[in-house]
Amino acid sequence: MSREITQRHWDVIVIGTGIGGGTTGRALAEAGRKVLFVEKGPAGHRSEQTPLSPGIFVPEARSARGFWPAEVRARVDGREARFFAPLGAGLGGSSVFYAATLERPEPHDLDHSEARPHPTGGWPVSWTEFAPWLDRAQALYRVCGTPDPLSETPCPNLAPPPPLSRGDQHLTERLRAQGLHPYALHSAIAHLPGCKGCLGFKCPHACKMDGRSAGVEPALATGNAALLDRCAVTRLLGDGQRITGLEARRAGEVLTLTADHVVLAGGALGSPRLCLASACETFPQGVANTSGLVGRGLMFHLNEMFAIWPGGTDPSPSKAIGLRDLYWREGQRLGMVQAMGVAASYGEIAWYLRGLVENSGLGRIPGAAGLSRIPAAIAAKLLGTAKIFVGLLEDLPYDDNRVLPPEGDSDEIAIDYRIHDELRARRRLFRREIARALRGQRKMFLTRRPELNFGHPSGTMRFGDDPARAVLRGDGRAHDVANLWGADAGFFPTSMGVNPSLGIAAQALRVADAINREGRDGA
Amino acid sequence: MARDDDRVKSGVALVTGAGRGLGRALARALASRGMRVAAVGRDAQSLAETANGSDRITPVIADVSDFDSLRHAFEEADALGPLTLLINNAALYPRCDIFDETPESFMQTTRVNLGGSFAATRMALDRMAETGFGRILNVATFADLHPLPASAAYSVSKGAARILTRALVADLADRFPDIVISDWMPGMLATRMGIPDGLAPDQSAKWGVELALWHDPALSGTSFEQAIEIPPPRGLKGRIKDRLLGRRRPLRRLD
Q1: What pLDDT was estimated at residue A55?
Q2: A57 interfacial to chain B (CB closer than 8 Å)
Q3: Do B132 and A47 lie within an 8 Å CB cutoff?
């Protein structure tokens, strides 16, 4: 079986099987193209219920579970930190672990206007052109929820959500009474009988829609696609104008794979590393890097986590509520607020407080972290069960925020990132606005310092019309490589105030459409 | 997630060492609870007696230390239905002073007690990982803590099998919470391996089957002795903390 897969010439090879790769591959296979998915990590067993656990540190154990095996080495504001980021490397990529929140951007996230100037002058595709693809992605991912009451644009293909829990109803009423506009968060979960609500862990059924269940599996079912797992692409080979082959490694063997088109979907961290690692005579700066921007413009959202104690006794966590009252405030781009899906019972409060203690000077005192359990236990008892929310603060692109070229064949991801003053200013505004919006509620911010959301990297293969200031064109094709495409979060020129997932799925469908329309010879 | 779990009972149980003693008692007790049982052992005559006219018990000849024969045994069991329960019971207890053991005889005992347990578990996992559901019960002993004289091979290999349970939990519990793996010490039995005035194997088997049909992710990694759960070891500080924070759960029982 394997020889047949590795030696034939494919219409399209898709590198990476997350939400971008899975969606692109599915659309191509359903249009009759012969597609090979090449996935670094394992396919795993379909029945797994694995949570994304930072506690697993043995690289082979991380790989077996579909986690990125190595650490991220991040230099943030000049300070180095090493940690395991919430990144997947396996069938479905990071999306098999995600909470399946597929929210739409706002028109001003794409379009420049006088009223809302765009930080990069606008995406190379307008809201009017992009919205139908968001709609199609919503249908494909069976998104359910209620429309945002503040939205001025229609939101088709939104299935009705399951009924809100009593606690969430109560919370929704209290938020409305504050003058806010909560709605049922848009989520890509089919809620089949026996649904466990797999937020943060792999769903063993075809219930949570992700890169695997809504992408690769339907693609394989067409008979036009195949999957090569445990296969890391090590280099892109080409003549300067086109990719002529991929060098990959599987079970100690070196393979050369060929196709008419190659789609990069290894994630906003993985894809630029591959392009940079492929630097050679014909691609002196790395593949697709005449602009010098591959890897640059790295954005994360900032997580502003806070707990609300809405009263009532329903202990179940909310992952059902979103609100966009703070999306745009005082002329600034902020972001949406979502229930985080964890109940702030004793355990979670303790985790966050421990994080605060560790990051402060007290962290160096042995046993200090354990002390944080006592106030958490008291807080839990006195204040009942809180709901944890996160405000997703938009990050803006800077050339000096970047993912660095890999060292040899190390899987360690090196990042250089600086928190700019304008981000700090917007963050202060966001926190003030959150506090103001929730005046009268019992609440507590759970973070002091800016918390980068390392699960939402984007921007490192940005699309744009100007080849001097972009890696990809608006249709997702690399400016300077005729048969190379980008279909992961790298394409975003701005990060929006919502999760990247729906945008990735929409752009992935556009990339597949462009490849399908080009025909077999990639002209 | 229940005692007397319907999903476990609706599948097939495979019991090793089912030709005599505790294994025979377990196979019969499972059959009386309605399960189809693949009774694995080396001797056809003994297995026939175990089955003794019960149409729910199917004798399957294999030696757990001969891994190919064990693979065939699992394939035979596949024909009976979906595997939901494995009881690792087959063991050797050669009473052998150290000067009567050779490296070869020592490793042969290890190959049965540890190797057979691992092999059967590994083959069961091939099936259970497809459905994400299963129950594995390892018949264990405290012999490892203070080995009796003339018991080196048994003590070492059975002790290692308890460590295997912990290693399996480390590899599987987060990915497959519904494959429940735990240890059970049946007590000193009146069997060939045990002592003359030991407990009747049928009595002990009642507890074993109760535990085997109890499917609860929280049981993975636990140990029960006869009818009572053995709490995990906890240092003095840990025990004081538990008292202060009111964290005391009553020990689970099988009777």
Answers
A1: 81
A2: no
A3: yes
